[in-house]
Amino acid sequence: MPLVFLTPYKKTYSSDFCSLSTLIGFIFLLLAIFIPFFAAFSSEDFWLRIKEYLEQPKVEYSNDYMIYITKAGENKIAKTFFYSSNNDLNNNYKKLCDIQPNKDNICPSKEQLEEQIKVTNIPFDNDNDGINDKITVTLETSNKGIITSSDGETTDIKLIFFLKYILTKEVKLLMTPMIYLNIPIIGSNQKEIILNGDLELVQKSPLVSTTITSQIYNYENVFELDENLYSPFDLLHYYNKYKNLNYTLKYNYEKVEENSSGSLKINIEMNIPKLQRIFYIQSVYEAIKYAWMQYFYIFLPIYIILYIIYKFIIGSNIFYSHVKSDL
Q1: pLDDT recorded at residue 103
Q2: CA 184 to CA 156: how far, in whole Å?
Q3: Which residues of 266-300 are buried (b: 16+ CB within 10 A; e: fewer)?
Q4: What's the rounded Cα separation, in Å, for the pair 158 and 267?
Q5: CA dist 275 → 16, 133, 201 (Å)
Q6: In whole angstroms, what is the distance from residue 313 CA to residue 72 CA?
Q7: pLDDT attached to residue 230
Q8: Which range has the worst mean pLDDT, 34-43, 245-254, 294-303?
Q9: Does the pLDDT of residue 79 top 50, yes or no?
Q10: Domain layout of the chain by residue ranges
């Protein structure tokens, strides 16, 4: 005789609220919730707030700089000279010259300065992706006497210039870091000096991932004179304050020095890394998103296993429950 219709035989199990079967079911539910949580939490990536990623930063030259030069020779009093792209600082230096005209300061006129010091920059975008791969800043002086040195003299050049450093991916950042260089020159400064190296972001703490661009280090604050300084134009003082900050830019370079028949020329070649490692604190939303995915993939098999075990316990009547059937 052929089978024309089949209905399954069903049993329904129920228990009182305060019964042992209900307690066991509640325990199994807690296990299904907390076992995946502790299993995921014990892994290295669960709720990982500090993360890292790689990004090529956008770096631009800001056209702001400060130069402090000391000239010294045998049996001669050291002479100092200061010039910057900031008119307020230049005017303050001129006031210092007016107050102490016979002291240790070299005080050329503005016309002499503009004639004898030239700072230029050239960006290089080798792959035409709109992001600079290299920036060359050139400091060039004429040979008309203010910065020239003879064979018996030593010239010590301290230079600070500012960059714009931009991150746009996981971290939105606009930073204005400074680059500090101390370049001693012994003897005649009719030389060409080439500095070539890489820029490196140094982080003492991770950055914060936000949708709003963070602005760090307004370089105009550096131009504010410190009244407690013995010399308000001591660039090393500004650099020491800067390098104690949480986020700084380091220039790791090698120096090549060549004799020249012309004036002093310093080429500062800064290579921008294609893949700068950035440490950051991810947002709460991002942390929850990844933590939830990890938790769910562990929860699903744990829940299935515990459900099968609990179904077997109740179906075997190990703990008493009410049974209702279709019969």
Answers
A1: 53
A2: 4
A3: bbbbbbbbeebebebbbeeeebeeebeebbeebbe
A4: 14
A5: 63, 11, 11
A6: 94
A7: 44
A8: 34-43
A9: yes
A10: 11-48+284-325, 52-63+116-281
Q: Which segments of the chain are extended strands (E)?
A: 11-14, 50-55, 58-73, 79-84, 117-124, 134-141, 153-167, 173-175, 178-186, 191-203, 207-208, 214-216, 247-259, 265-271, 276-281, 322-325
Count of residues making up the chain:
327
Tracing tokens 């102490």 back to the chain, one arrives at: 100
Closest residue by Cα to residue 147 from 245, 80, 88, 92: 80
Q: What is the mean pLDDT of residues 44-68?
A: 82
What does the block give as tokens for 201? 């972001």
Tokens read off for 326: 């279709």
Q: What is the pLDDT of residues 97-130, one digit of tens each?
A: 665 554 555 566 656 666 677 888 999 999 999 9
Residue 155: how many other CB atoms lie within 10 Å: 22
Distance between CA 231 and CA 104 in Å, rounded? 12
Q: What SS3 state is found at 289?
A: helix
Token pair recorded at residue 125: 């975008």
Partnered with residue 68 across adjacent β-strands are 82, 158
| The pair of three-digit structure tokens given for residue 103, joined into one six-digit string | 């002291």
